[in-house]
Structures are given as structure tokens and as C-alpha cells.
């Protein structure tokens, strides 16, 4: 599922960024090359990053595949 339609960033992309070491919304945005858009995804992105950071490493790797 897309987290941000403006930037075509999916939940899988977010999980991949977290698995690669991103631990904040700002770090995920930077890793994904996020460009300013409508902004309606900000809360959703924060929730997905929070869940991805809280998930065990194995679960993040599995859901990113």
C-alpha cells in the first residue's frame, strides 16, 4: 500500500529504509528522496515508521520483501 502517493512511496519502501538504518520520519524521507507534496501523508508516514522501528528485525525484513 502507498504511504505517499505524491512521491510513490510504499510501506515496503519505508520498511526497507528502516531495515537499512533509518530510524526517523526525516531519515526515511531523505532515503526515499521525498519531495514536498500535499502533506496529507505525514501522519501515515510517521505511523508506518514507528511500526517498522518497533518491529523485530526478522519481521521488517519479511514484510519488505
UniProtKB/TrEMBL annotation:
Keywords: 2Fe-2S, Electron transport, Iron, Iron-sulfur, Metal-binding, Transport
Superkingdom as given in the UniProt entry: Bacteria
Gene3D superfamilies: BFD-like [2Fe-2S]-binding domain (1.10.10.1100)
InterPro entries: BFD-associated_ferredoxin (IPR052371), BFD-like_2Fe2S-bd_dom (IPR007419), BFD-like_2Fe2S-bd_dom_sf (IPR041854)
Domain (BFD-like [2Fe-2S]-binding) ranges: 2-49
Family, similarity comment: Belongs to the Bfd family.
Protein name as annotated: Bacterioferritin-associated ferredoxin
Organism: Nocardia vinacea
